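User: What would this chain look like folded?
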Amino acid sequence: MWIKRHWPGVWRKLFSGLNNLRDITLSPEYSTLCGSTDADVDAVFAPELEGLDRDAIRRW
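Assistant: Here's the prediction, encoded as structure tokens.
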């Protein structure tokens, strides 16, 4: 790759951020972005959730 060969520092800088990723999937502030609605859960996981306490699952 041209940039890797001619600008190695730029190449390292571009991709060094990928080593510091932050998991936002369980953060309340990102719940609307990463979360699932009750309708989503019902549509996808209904058979697996049968007989389980949905309120306890929500609190988890």
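The two ends are 46 Å apart (CA to CA). If you want, I can go into more detail on any region.
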